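Reading is simple: each integer encodes one residue's backbone shape. The lines below illustrate:
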Amino acid sequence: MTAVVDADDVRRVASALPHVVEMDSDGFDFRVADKGFVWSYPERTPGRPRRIRTDIAVLYVGDEAEKQALLLGEPDLFFTTPAYDGFPLVMLRLAHVDVERLTELVTDAWRMRAPDSLVGDLDAAGS
């Protein structure tokens, strides 16, 4: 496996996509057309303040079927919590993924959240 990624890699990959806005946060939080597609995992532990985990990315996925396929197919990379039940979101352990796969996952998340009118800009850029 090649080098693992970190929050700086997420920031670099997400920022390179068209029409992306980074929201002010304690970690990273990227949106396209006011829709989040990748952000730092806000870990909630009962009795403790919420903690922003920049070593874990929350990614938007297409639907429940894709979510389950990722969770079951690659449990070392992806996980979820009950707070995300019913939402097309998975958590990605950055220490277990390389830049190429991160780029693929973040780009796919962007494509699913961007309006069709913006997706053409990504295709025109050759991504």
